[in-house]
């Protein structure tokens, strides 16, 4: 992470985390425990720990979004908390659906507390997100709540598509893109604009910020999909080639499958084998994605989306220090810093 | 059902259902299918059916709540749709957690579409509830959204308590009451007051309506718990003694267990047996609840809560026709009509 982006995220976390902790403290003890564990605030017994939660990207974008509208960062805090809660609700439920056992270097919540408690914990965080946002001291609260709800709906739709891909042998690249736009883009677009909504910004600015966030989201998903195949476990907090191990139809994979040819056949054949894939099989699958052009395509697409996001930024009528911070976060998220 | 209450519910359904259908139609195809199936609008393939969904009690209360504030019933429609969606979200997720296979005489959604799709379908309905409410044409939308979110939080907390009871050998009656107040009372209190919030009613009226709804909710839960032991499958849409079969610590059961004595020991012993309970064991468990005084206690408590609800109604400064409709619905819900 560049030190510039690191400083922006650290500063945002310092502002957002106290509000997050206060929000989660409203929950009943059982759901609070699940939420605090998932967020890295506590261990499974509720004892405070200094684990790393997420990077807080959505929270940081929400604060920058308020500043972009000329308001203090604080104006964006309810938006930041709401977006982080929706993000974490979706991770909690995704881990159940994908049967993932590791998240952020820790056992996933459902493996610790059971499926039912994890379903409820996610539900509680989703409800809490709206509650916090509705309490913001802004005349635009109704509109802000609509934006968050619509983004949540798109996020859930994307997740439903992702789920459908598992049993669908003919996923097109366009459909995969749409899925990623919903699953990842919608909430990042919301985060990047929701602070400006609370700051009562002109619609033109809010819409441009949402557009910027949508491109950032797509670039981020592409980079994340590359890391899901070639990322180191130290960096991802997940096992090696975890997306291949779970036979995910991620963007680089679908790029190869949809193009057809030898590498597509090879990948289809490996994905079709029963049981857990061995390290050798995972390596062969990764090689098929690489030779089939999936890695190069995803890298180029990520660059294109990043460029589009940065171009929107360049044209925004915002303070230079906010533009600079947004640029740093974009470059970090889009993998340009390593 | 009395014809008076039936007419009120039918009229409410006629007004609310078109808005519900429009709301659900916004969802992506996969989540829409799950929601429409669960709501009784469609079969598992999405073909429209004329199955019976729920009674629409929360929707009816929300419309009456708007009328109580002197507004037309239509003012309450976004509140009605929101409360029905939250109710159905919770049923969908509850069915997964309780592994229930039958709801409203049909196979539960998770048995038809799988657990993951049912989790997402519930998530989608919860998000949609907020979206619809936030779109209401009322200056009180922020407050309405807060009320709904707080009720949702209490509902989820109640469900978490219910879940915890499964493995807790020493549930007190007071804790069981609190659980029911959250799981059932919170959303009925919200429904009975949310229409008045959208109608910008005085706080005194809104709070009284919420108080009324809370008592109705408690009476309803007590009656529902009695039906969960002694209700006919034709009426409940569930198997005989389904709460005993799933070893639920419902209010009449906890009343006996918490009191201690021979029948409590007998019940504890039956609940402790491994595997499915036979019809004879279920009958013996029901007899233990009856002999231990659980049935009489729950019946008396339901009467007390119903009387409290009706007393609040009597004192409300509302039109007589609204009072009469609220009374009919209360008597139906609280089991006084059969």
What overall geometry of chain A do the principal axes of the alpha carbons give?
Answer: globular
| The CATH homology group name of chain A | Farnesyl Diphosphate Synthase
Radius of gyration of chain A: 20 Å
Strand content of chain A: under 5%
- Domain module tally of chain A: 1
Which pair of chains has the greatest number of interface residues, and how are they split between the two chains?
A-B, 40 and 41 residues
Total number of beta strands of chain A: 2
Look at the helices and sheets of chain A and give the structural class. mainly alpha
Major β-sheet strand ordering of chain A:
1-2
Largest sheet of chain A: 2 strands, antiparallel
Write the element-wise H/E pattern of chain A from the N-terminal end onward.
HHHHEEHHHHHHHHHHHH
Average of the residue pLDDT scores of chain A: 95
Q: What is CATH's topology name of chain A? A: Farnesyl Diphosphate Synthase
Number of helices of chain A: 16
CATH class designation of chain A: Mainly Alpha
CATH architecture of chain A: Orthogonal Bundle
Helix content of chain A: over 70%
Task: Give a written overview of the molecule.
Two copies of one chain form a homodimer. By secondary structure, chain A is mainly α. Chain A has one domain: Orthogonal Bundle (Farnesyl Diphosphate Synthase). Chain A has helices spanning 3-24, 29-38, 57-68, 77-98, 109-113, 115-134, 141-165, 173-198, 203-230, 233-236, 242-245, 251-259, 262-271, 279-291, 294-315, 320-333; strands at 102-103, 106-107. The longest helix of chain A has 28 residues, at 203-230. At the A-B interface, α4, α6 and α7 of A face α4, α6 and α7 of B.
């Amino acid at each position: 992470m560049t030190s510039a982006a690191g400083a922006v995220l650290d500063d945002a976390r310092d502002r957002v985390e106290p509000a997050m902790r206060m929000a989660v403290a409203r929950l009943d003890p059982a759901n609070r425990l699940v939420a605090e564990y998932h967020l890295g605030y506590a261990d499974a017994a509720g004892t405070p720990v200094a684990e790393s939660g997420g990077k807080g990207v959505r929270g940081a974008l929400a604060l920058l979004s308020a500043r972009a509208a000329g308001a203090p960062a604080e104006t964006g805090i309810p938006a930041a908390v709401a977006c982080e809660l929706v993000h974490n609700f979706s991770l909690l439920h995704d881990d159940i659906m994908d049967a993932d056992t590791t998240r952020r270097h820790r056992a996933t919540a459902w493996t610790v507390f059971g499926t039912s408690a994890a379903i409820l914990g996610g539900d509680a965080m989703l409800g809490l997100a709206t509650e916090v946002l509705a309490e913001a001291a802004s005349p635009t609260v109704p509109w802000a709540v609509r934006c968050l709800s619509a983004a949540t709906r798109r996020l859930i739709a994307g997740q439903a598509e992702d789920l459908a891909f598992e049993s669908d042998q003919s996923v097109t690249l366009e459909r995969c893109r749409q899925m990623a736009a919903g699953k990842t883009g919608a909430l990042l677009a919301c985060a990047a604009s929701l602070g400006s909504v609370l700051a009562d910004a002109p619609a033109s600015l809010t819409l441009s910020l949402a557009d910027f966030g949508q491109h950032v989201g797509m670039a981020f998903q592409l980079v994340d999909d590359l890391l899901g195949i070639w990322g180191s476990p130290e960096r991802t907090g997940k096992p090696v080639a975890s997306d291949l191990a779970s036979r995910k139809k991620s963007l680089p994979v679908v790029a190869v499958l949809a193009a057809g040819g030898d590498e597509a056949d090879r990948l289809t054949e490996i994905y079709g084998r029963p049981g857990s894939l061995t390290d050798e099989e995972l390596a062969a699958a990764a090689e098929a994605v690489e030779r089939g052009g999936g890695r190069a395509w995803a890298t180029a697409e990520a660059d294109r989306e990043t460029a589009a996001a940065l171009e929107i930024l360049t044209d925004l009528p915002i303070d230079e220090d906010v533009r600079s911070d947004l640029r740093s976060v974009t470059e970090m998220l889009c993998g340009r810093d390593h």
